[in-house]
Amino acid sequence: MHIEIHGRRDADAPTLVFSSGLGGAAHFWMPQLNALTSDYRVVLYDQLGTGKSPAALPADYSIDAMASEVRTLLASHGIGDYHLIGHALGGLVGLALAIQQAPGLRSLTLMNAWSRVSPHTARCFSVRKQLLAGSGPAAYVEAQALFLYPPDWIAANIAQLEADDLKHVAGFPPTDNLLRRIAALQAFAPDAQTLASIRQPTLLIANRDDMLVPWQCSRELTEQLPNARLQCFDYGGHASSVTCPDTINTTLKRFLASVIHDTEYAA
């Protein structure tokens, strides 16, 4: 699996592990690097079967398997204690790590995540799969921005989006891998008792204008976790780490500082 380690290399550096959403690629987190690498060791990776981590995923692929892959990856690089920041599917990976009682997991930040798939989100994925089957990767990629970003942000960044679309089509993953990753996130549904066993300090970040995952999913998940708090923003869409990086970076730094220094989180 492809891994990148940025920022501090000293033994005392707190380590942040970023886990991406359905796309699975490390480069999703580029807007966070400059803000965090002076204070932290930052670990990015391409999830198995995506980007620079090519593999044929099994038919029964699961979120639990993705979490186990993270554990193996970190152990192979001698990474002990860490804080997991996950977006959507990557947030589910964080929950699975906590459920597995993964050693070294000190806190969770879950962005636009859920404990079970909303009917709205399921309908969005159904449309995306039909686009892929009927029109191919180019149509799937072009539609992706509609689910990720607010309309005004798309309009202001259309040239960059169009350039990115060409790259995403050229590097599009095997269709079976994508469908199996979607099936894995749709099947992930830990029960209330399991979620109540998660003790790590947890920050949930949601956006009221998220067109893919209703923000109420984060509210429900916050209520199910015993040591969680919710930070909800009006603007940013599903990918607010990209559309509003300054806001997200500031939020991350405040939460991480509260966990590391055992102080009250200041929203």
Describe the fold and architecture.
The structure is a single chain. With 267 residues, the protein is of the alpha/beta class. It has a single domain (3-265), classed as Alpha/Beta hydrolase fold, catalytic domain (Rossmann fold, 3-Layer(aba) Sandwich), CATH 3.40.50. The protein is built from twelve helices and seven strands. The chain has helices at 30-36, 63-76, 89-99, 119-135, 137-148, 151-156, 158-170, 175-187, 192-196, 216-224, 240-243, 245-260, and strands spanning 3-7, 15-19, 41-45, 82-87, 105-111, 202-207, 228-233. The protein is globular, with a radius of gyration of 17 Å. The N and C termini lie far apart (35 Å).
Short structural summary:
Helices cover 48% and strands 15% of the residues. By secondary structure, it is of the alpha/beta class.
Overall mean pLDDT: 97
Helix content bin: 40-55%
- What integer value in Å does the Rg equal? 17 Å
**How many strands, what sense, and barrel or not for the largest sheet?**
7 strands, mixed
Percent of sequence in beta strands:
5-15%
Total domain units: 1
N-to-C CA distance: 35 Å
Strand order of the largest sheet: 1-3-2-4-5-6-7
Looking at CATH, the homologous superfamily is Alpha/Beta hydrolase fold, catalytic domain
> Which architecture name does CATH use?
3-Layer(aba) Sandwich
Shape: globular
Order of helix and strand elements from N to C terminus: EEHEHEHEHHHHHHEHEHH
- How many β-strands, per DSSP? 7
Low-confidence stretches: none
Number of helical runs?
12
**CATH T-level fold name:** Rossmann fold
